[in-house]
Amino acid sequence: MKCWQYLAIEIELWWNMIWKSLMQDGMITWIDRVLFANTTNMMIRNFLKCGIAGWCMEVVWTSIMGIKNHDRKMMGKTSIWMFPIYGLGAVIKPLSRKIRKFNMIFRGFIYMAGIYFVEFISGTILQRKNCCPWNYSKCKYNIKGVVRLDYAPLWFMAGLLLEKVVNKQEK
């Protein structure tokens, strides 16, 4: 194994440990109450939750990608344009109610397809306005430079993670 593969495994283990700890200790519920206490509309709350979760995932992802580029600073980044795009993950809650009887694999594929759809539409619109924060045109498996097909496993997992975030029961 290469050094970056060991680091990726370590980061994954660390992430799982932190996420489970936050879920078990109720930290996510506490953050939800503090940040969204005055927001009564559930769709708006989930839009805000998904926007914030998306930003956080992107910063972590771009930091980890720094390893691949031999960047020891591992500086993560995102764009203000990404918040409303990630916020659209709020539609996962009503969708998850309709497909909850299906297994996790099926739900993951549905979410992945939805994420690809939103990524393609939003990326195309932002490209036309010359403000798209991503450009996959040099990547091997891309569609019009706005979608990377090799990201399918990531979008699969991101959809299932957002399903957990938006369906977290309040106490």
Explain what you see.
This protein is mainly α. Helices cover about 65% and strands about 0% of the residues. The protein has 7 helices and 2 strands.
Task: Please provide the ordered H/E string of secondary-structure elements.
Answer: HHHHHHEEH
Shape: globular
How far apart are the termini?
Answer: 44 Å
The Cα radius of gyration reads 17 Å
Give the number of helices.
7
Classification by helices and strands = mainly alpha
The biggest beta sheet reads:
2 strands, antiparallel
How would you summarize what this structure contains?
The chain is mostly helical. The chain is built from seven helices and two strands. It has helices spanning 3-25, 27-36, 42-68, 82-87, 92-99, 104-128, 152-166; strands spanning 142-143, 147-148.
How does the SSE layout of this entry go?
Elements lengths: L2 H23 L1 H10 L5 H27 L13 H6 L4 H8 L4 H25 L13 E2 L3 E2 L3 H15 L5
Helix pairs in contact: 6-7
Features:
171 residues, globular, 67% helix, 2% strand
